[in-house]
Specification:
Blueprint lengths: L7 E3 L2 E7 L2 E7 L7 E3 L1 E5 L5 H17 L1 H8 L9 H18 L1 H4 L4 E5 L8 E3 L3 H39 L1
Parallel strand pairs: 1-7
Antiparallel strand pairs: 2-3, 4-7, 5-6
Length: 170
């Protein structure tokens, strides 16, 4: 599954139309096309609800504690009228098993793989262009920006030297 929010869509197919002094551009990806996606990959697993399992287990134990007589009949194995540590551990295990059986259908669900916008600021690209063409395009942009940077740096150096020459001639 791909969440396209905040993605740069690079495609060979576009619809462009104008309405009420606005230009609308729609990037198109069609079913069956091979796409290239660069972003953050994550998997939602069926056992990612461990926190919910612990919460449900705590709620079940709290429910059992409300009926002290039934709790003692069920878990007070030494019949001293109290639930000691070992007996409480047996109760916790039974609660865990009961909740696990109730949620076993959840655990049988397949994992869900998601591609989305990276949290660390890396680019997120969805494209139907071949990977080599995307790489060439990125390289071209990088060299262009590098050329602009060095041109600006040279211009700044030229201005500084001219300004310095003017100041030293006075």
């Amino acid at each position: 599954m791909i969440n396209p929010e905040h993605a740069d869509i690079l495609t060979t197919d576009q619809n462009i139309w104008y309405s009420d002094n606005y230009k609308y551009v729609e990037d198109l990806l069609f079913p069956g096309q091979q796409i290239y996606v660069a972003g953050e990959f994550s998997t939602l697993t069926s056992n990612s609800g461990l926190q919910e399992l612990n919460t449900d287990m705590s709620q079940l134990l709290a429910k059992w504690k409300k009926n002290k007589r039934a709790l003692l009949e069920r878990f007070d194995t030494n019949h001293d009228g109290k639930i000691d540590f070992d007996e409480w551990e047996v109760a916790r295990k039974e609660a865990f098993q009961e909740i696990s059986q109730q949620t076993s259908c959840i655990n049988e669900q397949p994992n869900i793989h998601i591609m989305g916008c990276p949290q660390n600021g890396q680019p997120f690209v969805i494209s139907n262009l071949p990977e080599k063409k995307l790489h060439r395009q990125s390289l071209l942009f990088a060299w262009s920006y590098l050329l602009v940077f060095f041109t600006a740096l040279g211009g700044a150096f030229w201005v500084i030297t001219r300004y310095h020459t003017l100041l030293t001639n006075f």
